[in-house]
Design goal:
Layout: H1 2-27, H2 39-64, H3 71-89, H4 95-113, H5 115-124
Length: about 140
């Protein structure tokens, strides 16, 4: 589970780096875009991705600390990233981006669903005051 937490924290750091790049871009005189991108919409996009990245960071730290609540947000994030990679591979015709999104997502999903990940989840789903023989499964 710790490896899944490390990869999730790295995904959050990549998201925060994207937010910084958006803020740097919004601060420049010429936004350099094709279309109707405004400074306000760029700040809004940075805020949106900043909140998401902070949530991913919290979930990744939760996995690193073996917190049971962090498993579901990380699982959902990885499934969303698989959808992003599918779109990058197909309609966007960007196989390198698809590979960059899919490989960490599949690895984290494998960590969450392999035997050790399932055992961790079953151990932590028991009530804190339950005796070891009282687990329901």
């Amino acid at each position: 589970m710790r490896l899944a937490g490390v990869v999730t924290v790295l995904q959050a750091v990549a998201g925060i780096a994207f937010v910084v790049a958006l803020l740097v871009r919004a601060g420049q005189a010429d936004l350099g875009s094709v279309g109707s991108l405004t400074r306000t919409s760029t700040y809004g996009e940075a805020g949106y991705f900043g909140l998401i990245s902070l949530g991913v960071l919290v979930a990744g730290i939760g996995l690193l600390r073996s917190k049971h609540w962090a498993r579901t947000p990380v699982l959902l994030l990885q499934l969303l990233l698989l959808g992003v990679s599918w779109y990058a591979m197909g309609p966007s015709d960007s196989p390198l981006a698809a590979f960059a999104f899919a490989v960490p997502a599949v690895f984290v999903l494998w960590c969450l669903f392999n035997r050790a990940g399932r055992d961790w989840w079953l151990r932590s789903s028991a009530a804190p005051d339950a005796e070891h023989g009282d687990r329901q499964g």
